[in-house]
Each structure stands twice: as structure tokens, then as C-alpha cells.
Design a protein that fits this description.
36% of the residues lie in helices and 20% in strands. The protein is of the alpha+beta class and 671 residues long. The chain has six domains: 60 residues, Helix Hairpins (Orthogonal Bundle); 242 residues, D-amino Acid Aminotransferase, Chain A, domain 1 (2-Layer Sandwich); 100 residues, OB fold (Dihydrolipoamide Acetyltransferase, E2P); 71 residues, DNA polymerase, domain 1; 71 residues, DNA polymerase, domain 1 (Orthogonal Bundle), CATH 1.10.150.20; 67 residues, 3-Layer(aba) Sandwich (Rossmann fold), CATH 3.40.50.
């Protein structure tokens, strides 16, 4: 039986890797996402039932459940050099002249690649298995970000035919965030009242430096391989061949790489992409031109910081002038007031731009932007329209009124208050209809309760007609109330009600996310739901408990959660909501009674558990976790660098065990 299970697990792993190869390398999937997810779910289920068969290179083991405490430094076996830039055809031809001179008249050709705007990474494979991923850093030393890179599905954990490459193969490439993923990430951050990323590159870099790989996994990063580092045996004779070899090994290579016989062909390729780059689902800020043959790389050599055998051709950023016709103030779901510039429509980087966020009123003051001003706009990362500067010299004499922060909410007229610890101004009135509409729209959104038929236009009518005044009211809608609204016939109303009914049993984390707690998005909500198995349990948690239980999120978010649930109006609203919905929860199940009746405290740094995990393990085995040592404490688990709790435990004569002894006590086998 075990042999059959092991065989099936190996079959599933092989099949999943093959489908990853077809999807990421050839962009030619054979099965649907749903079918792929079914294979993955079967593998995960079999591994959970047979933990002794789990291996580090299994597709299910991409995401580490344990946040790291920092990134250790890694010295690169072969330096990761920078690339010199050019900005014109003349500079590119001057590079070609230097190459020709350096090669002494020998024939040469080029490989032309898209310069992906992301973060350079070095992947080290040993005997075909990924063992380390490191950032470029200063070129000599980078940060070990292996746990986060393992979450990127485009990065193979095991090379296909890995034995062919020898003991060591280092692959250099670019980790990037697709434009679509970037737009969705910023949408979620805006809804959670979190600062947005300026561009996809910053988002990718920030995601790779997160201490919790689970959050990185949700950022939908991707990867293209473009060069080799250290190798134990030659991979190919030239760069073009090495890229083709990468594909055979299961490494994704950008499909738009081309060969060029000479610099004229290379320049034509560069100029062509300058015009069509906006059609890509990732950002490029130029092109990279490389001499093809490896032996010529050695002849040309490098300067102190950059190789002489390659160069980048940088695209000029697309900008446009337009007029600020007016400045509006939007009110978000948490009452945040955001100034928005309405622009004379202008075509920029592939789309027509008519609005640009001014982020906050400090930004308005820094720019000194006024209605009627002529401004220069640019798409940050080619995605988000932003105002770069004002053409002061073109400002008309009758434009003399600066934009001021409103003292009252533009929707409900309530007082406006500035955050004590930030730059945002907020409407204090929780009953503000603008806030209510935003909250309802967010609650019904795809990433929360997923009520797809409850759109902004319908919500606006429901609020304006005072039919819906809270989340609970959504679930009290009936065919008569909906049919009374504009453009809502019986059939349309039935579809809305059907969608609402489906949402009644959404997972708990979706409900938590939908509440709109400040700075709590989907990932944070999942962490809370994993720990607190009901909304009541979460509501009644103390601030201290929250801070300890979600230490990978931090004390600020813990405070936000605690204060939200301490609000009497919020608690009344949730009571009404829970009478209408039945969120699916992951019930806490006790595995053994080995710790029954014992109060247990952990202190210091543990190797196999986070604070949340150790408390859950204690509960799973019948014990009661505690954060403080007292006479009631039965056992203290000592990690490295223990604090004062160890001294107190010794003084009180409490039994003390190290982490290994504790695991032996409960027969725990680390995964």
C-alpha cells in the first residue's frame, strides 16, 4: 500500500513539473487551471496523509510556513556585474566599434534581449536541485532569498534532466511582477488603506524582501532566465545555445530574444520594441545587446563594474503634457480623503489618461498643483498615471488660488481629521454614505465575499434609497426590494440573490478581509483565520494575544484589529451579520492529550516553530499556551537566546526542556 502511494506521489510530482514546463517555458498549457489545481490538491492530500514521503523538492513545498528573521549574506561564486547604458543609436554604434576593435577584426554576432524591469537574481542548482537564490546586492555579496524565490512557480525546484549539467549550475535571471499582478496588488493595498507601490520593479523587490514567504507567494511574481554564473561543466559554446539549453532544463526564457548579425540589425530590433512594449504584460525599460560567443566574452573582458561584451539600450520614458481641469476629493471605505486630478484626456503609453491620483494633500502642496495648470504626466512603471511637475512658466495669471484641504467631508459634511501618525485626512463619520458605498463595494469584491452581481451602480442605488445600511442588510434583500430599483428586472434580481446566497458560506478569511479593517488585506486575513477559528474568538482576543499570534504581521496591525473589534457599533454590526452568514472555518482539532492539564510557556528563538505554531502545537496536544511564567506554569520550552522567563522559571522550580526534548515529548516530527 505504501509503495502504491509513493508511486502515485512520484507520478503526480512528475506530471505537475511537466505541466509547469509547458506553461512557463513554452506558454503551451495542455490542461486547464482547474485540472492543474486538482492534480496539486491530490498530491498535497497524499503528502499530508504520508508526511514521511514529503521531499523538499516537491511542488507542494514551495511556500515556507515559517517567517525568516532576516536575510543572511551570500558571496557570489562569480561576480554579478552591472551593465553600462546607452541612450541613442550613436552611443550603440560606439559600443559596436569598441567590440570590433577589442576582437581585432574577428567575426562576431549579437543576441538582443528585452531588459525586464525587475530584480536580478542568482539561482544555484546542485545536482539539478535548487539549493539557493540570492539577490545581486553589490555584485559580490547578495541576500539569501531562497524561501521567497521558491514560491515563484516559474522557478523550477528541480531541473529537467538535471544530471546533465553536472554538480553545479548557477542561473542568472530577472524576478519581475507582471503588470496585471501589479495593478491588482495596488488595488488591494488601496482598499486596505496601505501605501501603493510606485512601479512593478519596486513591488517585485519589496516582495522578495518580505520575511513571510506566504505573503510573497500571493504576489504572483514571475521569472525569466538570461545568463549563467558558476558551472561545473560547460553548458554551451555560446550565449544563444545556453538559452536554448535553459528551455530544455525547464527554465523559462523570454520568447522575444533574437539574434542579430550586426549592430544595424540589433538597433532595428531595439527601435521596434520601443514602439510595441506597451503591449507586454510586464515592464521593460530597454534592451540588452550581448556578444554571442563565450570565448569572445573572455577576450573582451570587463571593467571594474561592467562587462565589455554587452550593453543596454534604454528607452526614454513616455511623458505628456495636459491640463488639470479640476481636483476632486474621493472618500474611501475607511474615510480616507484622496485628491484626484481630472485631466484633459491625453494618450500615453498605450492608453488614454484622464485622471491621476495625487496620493495625499502633502503631495498637492509639494507640487503646488492648481486647477487650470499645465502639467507633465508619466505612467509610473508605465501603469499608474502620476503628475511629475507643473509648467509654472505656462501658468496663467488668473490661476492664483491654491488647493486647500477641505475642513469637512465633501459627501456628508462631517469634520475631517488628520491621522496622528501619517499624512492622511479622514472623515470621522462612520455613517458617511461615501464610506458606506466603498465598504459595501469592497465587502462584495472578488477578493472578499465575491458577490459578483453586486456592483457599484447597484450599491449606489441601495444606499441612496436607504435599503442597505450595513453588511447584514445585503442578506436581507428580496426580490421585491431589488425589483423596485432602476434596470433591475425579475431575472436580474434573481441572479443577484443567487450570488448573495452563495456568499453566505464563504471561508472565514474572506469575511475577515471583507470587514475592511484598516490595513488588513487578504493575506493578513488568512493568517488570522488560520489562528482564530471563529469570528467570535477573534473579536474577543486581547491586543497582547493578537500581537503575539500574528507576529509576522506586526504590532500596528494587531492594534488595528483590536481597536476595530472594541468599537461597539462594529460589534453590533457583526452580531447582525453573523445571524445571516455561516463562514466556513478550520476547526481546531486536538491530536493527543499528552499535554492535558499543563500550562506551557516558550521563550527564546525556536528553530522549528514560529510563536503561532508552537502555541497551536501545544493546544493540539491538550495543553494551554501562556505568554508569562507564573506558579501555574507546568513547563518552559527554552530556545536560543532565552529572555528573563528562563530565570523566573528556574527560581520557581518549573520544569525546563529544550526544543528537541519538547518534540520528543509529543512525538513531533518536523516537516
Amino acid at each position: 500500500m505504501v509503495k502504491d502511494v509513493k508511486k502515485r506521489i512520484e507520478q503526480l510530482r512528475s506530471e505537475i513539473r511537466r505541466h509547469d514546463y509547458l506553461y512557463y517555458v513554452h506558454n503551451r498549457p495542455e490542461i486547464s487551471d482547474r485540472q492543474y489545481d486538482k492534480l496539486f490538491a491530490e498530491l498535497k492530500s497524499l503528502e499530508e496523509a504520508n508526511p514521511q514521503l514529503i521531499t523538499a523538492d516537491s511542488p507542494t513545498q514551495r511556500v515556507s510556513e515559517r517567517p525568516v528573521e532576516g536575510f543572511r549574506s551570500v558571496r557570489h561564486a562569480a561576480a554579478m556585474l552591472s551593465i553600462d547604458n546607452t541612450y541613442s543609436a550613436e552611443e550603440l554604434r560606439a559600443f559596436d566599434e569598441r567590440v570590433a576593435k577589442g576582437l581585432g577584426g574577428r567575426d562576431y554576432d549579437y543576441v538582443v534581449e528585452l531588459k525586464i524591469d525587475g530584480l536580478a537574481i542568482n539561482l544555484r542548482y546542485e545536482k539539478g536541485q535548487l539549493v539557493r537564490a540570492a539577490t545581486r546586492g553589490d555584485g559580490e555579496v547578495g541576500d539569501d532569498v531562497t524561501a521567497n524565490v521558491r514560491t515563484i512557480n516559474a522557478v523550477p525546484l528541480v531541473l529537467l534532466g538535471g544530471g546533465e549539467v553536472g554538480d553545479v549550475l548557477e542561473v542568472r535571471g530577472e524576478v519581475y511582477m507582471p503588470t496585471s499582478a501589479f495593478a491588482e496588488l495596488n488595488r488591494l493595498r488601496t482598499e486596505a488603506a496601505e501605501p501603493v507601490f510606485a512601479n512593478p520593479r519596486n513591488a517585485a523587490a519589496g516582495s522578495l524582501k518580505l520575511l513571510d514567504a506566504r505573503i510573497t507567494a500571493a504576489r504572483n511574481l514571475s521569472f525569466f532566465a538570461y545568463s549563467i554564473g558558476q558551472v561545473s561543466r560547460p553548458l554551451a559554446e555560446n550565449h544563444w545555445q545556453s538559452l536554448q539549453k535553459f528551455k530544455k532544463l525547464g527554465l523559462p526564457v523570454n520568447p522575444n530574444i533574437r539574434r542579430a548579425k550586426n549592430i544595424d540589425e540589433a538597433l532595428d530590433i531595439c527601435l521596434g520594441w520601443g514602439e510595441k512594449r506597451s503591449k507586454l504584460d510586464y515592464q521593460i525599460d530597454g534592451m540588452v545587446i550581448k556578444v554571442n560567443r563565450f570565448e569572445q566574452w573572455a577576450v573582451l573582458g570587463a571593467t571594474g563594474r561592467a562587462p565589455r561584451w554587452c550593453i543596454s539600450y534604454k528607452f526614454p520614458a513616455e511623458q505628456a503634457e495636459t491640463i488639470v481641469e479640476s481636483i476632486d476629493v474621493q472618500v474611501g471605505k475607511s474615510g480616507t480623503l484622496t485628491p484626484i486630478a481630472n485631466l484633459t484626456p491625453v494618450f500615453l503609453a498605450g492608453s488614454t489618461v484622464s485622471r491621476a491620483t495625487l496620493h495625499n494633500f502633502d503631495q498637492v502642496n509639494r507640487l503646488d498643483v492648481r486647477e487650470g495648470d499645465i502639467v507633465v504626466i508619466e505612467k509610473a512603471g508605465e501603469v499608474i498615471p502620476q503628475i511629475l511637475n507643473i509648467k509654472i512658466e505656462k501658468r496663467k495669471s488668473d490661476i492664483n488660488s491654491t488647493f486647500t484641504v477641505p475642513e469637512k467631508c465633501p459627501v456628508c459634511g462631517s469634520k475631517v481629521k488628520k491621522d496622528d501618525d501619517g499624512v492622511y485626512f479622514r472623515c470621522d463619520n462612520s455613517s458617511c454614505t461615501a464610506q458606506l458605498k466603498e465598504r459595501l463595494e469592497y465587502f462584495a469584491g472578488k477578493g472578499q465575499m465575491d458577490i459578483d452581481t453586486l456592483g457599484p451602480a447597484l450599491i449606489e442605488q441601495l444606499v441612496d434609497k436607504k435599503i442597505v445600511r450595513s453588511f447584514a442588510d445585503i442578506y436581507k434583500l428580496d426580490i421585491y426590494k431589488l425589483s423596485s430599483l432602476e434596470r433591475m428586472a425579475t431575472k436580474s434580481s434573481e441572479k443577484v440573490l443567487e450570488s448573495i446566497d452563495k456568499s453566505r458560506t464563504r471561508p472565514l478569511w474572506r469575511l475577515i478581509a471583507g470587514l475592511g479593517i484598516r490595513n488588513i488585506g487578504g493575506q493578513s486575513a488568512q493568517i488570522l483565520a488560520d489562528r482564530f477559528h471563529s469570528l467570535y474568538e477573534l473579536m474577543n482576543a486581547s491586543e497582547n494575544d493578537l500581537e503575539e499570534e500574528i507576529n509576522q504581521i506586526g504590532p500596528v496591525l494587531a492594534k488595528n484589529v483590536f481597536e476595530y473589534f472594541q468599537n461597539k457599533d462594529n460589534r453590533k454590526m457583526i452580531e447582525k451579520l453573523l445571524a445571516e452568514v455561516n463562514p466556513q472555518t478550520q476547526k481546531a482539532t486536538r491530536k493527543t492529550d499528552l499535554l492535558a492539564g499543563k500550562t506551557i510557556v516558550a521563550t527564546g528563538e525556536l528553530k522549528n516553530f514560529t510563536r503561532t505554531q508552537i502555541k497551536q502545537v501545544i493546544k493540539d496536544n491538550g495543553g494551554k499556551p501562556s505568554s508569562s511564567v507564573s506558579k501555574k506554569t507546568s513547563l518552559l520550552i527554552k530556545g536560543s537566546n532565552p529572555g528573563s522567563k528562563l530565570k523566573t522559571a528556574r527560581e520557581l522550580g518549573i520544569e525546563i526542556v529544550d526544543e528537541n526534548q519538547f518534540m520528543q515529548l509529543i512525538n513531533y516530527v518536523p516537516k
